[in-house]
Design goal:
Blueprint lengths: L1 H8 L2 H35 L3 E4 L8 E5 L1 H19 L7 H23 L1 E8 L3 E17 L8 E6 H5 L3 E2 L6 E9 L2 E5 L19 E5 L13 E8 L9 E5 L6 E5 L2 E27 L6 E12 L4 E8 L4 E3 L2 E8 L5 E8 L5 H32 L1
Antiparallel strand pairs: 1-2, 3-18, 4-5, 4-13, 6-7, 7-10, 8-9, 10-11, 12-13, 13-14, 14-15, 16-17, 17-18
């Protein structure tokens, strides 16, 4: 049994099947972008073990095709196992070994990047300082204690993934439990008024007591994003204490909500997920050059001040197109700006595997040079021998 499994793992048929499946997946994903957009397709087709039907969010689903992660992992295992089994180690095969090693590094690096890379944005107005970047597509529910510490707020962040499961959430920093009653991946909010009797408020406290929520399909356009909303109930830990009611938290509300409990003032808000840094970035100046007589950007750049107390760093850096800032494993790119040039938008990328494509290309190139070079030398020697 083990022998048959090993034969399957190392077979050339499995390699061809994986390559064919990858081609079909890319073709199907390209077609699906017409209806779902690039971000949803990337999540459902290429960043998953299986492609599910019907799409996530329906009442039932089952796998219909292997996803990008599964195909890549099987192809990587197949390549390593086949190389160990079939190729004999020796100096004459050094070029082949190096070429295959480069392909293995490339596949492993791609999988590592897809699993661990994090992209976010930092929007800075002139003179503004931030020590965090924000996820453009991920949300978090924050519960903030604003009165325990006069200088610092105590922030408890709950990721969107937990809200989506609609479960009870408890944390040692909170004197109450949060129960997720409803979750909307994309929604539209309507003010409740006497003109439309069909609209019902979805919550009993805060702004939600005057707002109705309508579930809508997920955003598919590149310049759109989902309006995530959730209805939560706040239940104190103390036995016999009444519920603090249900609250609507949404990206569309635009303002946090507050309530008193246990002698403290609490603030709740659904906002873009934040990634805090051990350093701060201050925008000193933003410049935007255009081609003469047009509104087409020619060059835009941000001069920032980077301050890191832990490493005694305090320096000015100019970030502009194709000249990013690399610091502490993160790369800051000049990604965009406000239409009125009042703020600069920096893309922040943390990618532990960003070096692997360069290493893989060098190894593959070296392997090809060794392989073809050895054959050329052997051919030249035989040629000279025949002429002699």
């Amino acid at each position: 049994m083990m022998r048959k499994a090993y034969d399957v793992i190392t077979s050339l048929k499995l390699t061809i099947a994986c390559l064919a499946a990858a081609a079909v997946l890319v073709f199907a994903g390209t077609l699906a972008q017409v209806n779902y957009g690039i971000h949803i397709v990337q999540e459902r087709y290429f960043q998953s073990l299986f492609v599910w039907w019907p799409p996530a969010g329906s009442g039932f689903k089952f796998p219909v095709f292997p996803g990008g992660h599964l195909i890549g992992a099987v192809l990587l295992i197949n390549l390593i196992a086949a190389h160990v089994r079939r190729f004999r180690w020796g100096w004459k095969k050094l070029g082949i070994h190096l070429t295959h090693a480069g392909l293995i590094v490339m596949l492993a690096g791609g999988l590592l990047t897809d699993l661990l890379a994090v992209e976010s944005h930092m929007r800075l107005a002139q003179g503004e300082t931030k020590n965090y970047s924000e996820d453009q597509r991920g949300m978090e529910l924050v519960v903030i204690d604003t009165t325990s510490d006069a200088e610092l707020d105590q922030v408890t962040a709950i990721p969107e993934a937990l809200l989506r499961k609609q479960r009870e959430i408890a944390h040692s920093s909170l004197p109450f439990r949060i129960v997720v009653r409803n979750f909307f991946q994309n929604s539209r909010l309507h003010m409740v008024n006497e003109g439309n009797a069909r609209l019902r408020p979805i919550a009993t406290q805060g702004l939600g007591a005057q707002v109705a929520v309508q579930s809508v399909p997920r955003a598919t356009s590149m310049d759109e994003r989902d309006v995530v909303s959730a209805v939560i109930e706040i239940i104190p830990h103390e036995a016999g204490t009444n519920s603090l009611g249900t609250w609507l938290v949404s990206d569309a509300l635009g303002a946090p909500q507050t309530f008193p409990y246990a002698g403290r003032t609490w603030r709740i808000e659904l906002r873009s997920a934040r990634y805090y840094k051990p350093y701060s970035v201050t925008l000193q100046k933003f410049t935007h050059e255009r081609y003469p007589g047009t509104e087409i950007p020619k060059n835009f750049a941000s001069r920032i001040t980077l301050i890191d107390p832990e490493r005694s760093v305090n320096r000015d850096v100019l970030i502009y197109m194709n000249h990013p800032l690399r610091y502490r494993g993160e790369t800051f790119y000049q990604a965009g700006f406000q239409k009125d040039d009042s703020a600069s938008i920096l893309q922040v990328v943390r990618n532990p595997g960003f070096v692997t494509p360069y290493v893989a290309c060098v190894i593959v190139a070296l392997g090809l040079l060794v392989q073809f070079g050895s054959h050329l030398i052997t051919f030249s020697r035989r040629r000279r021998g025949a002429l002699a």
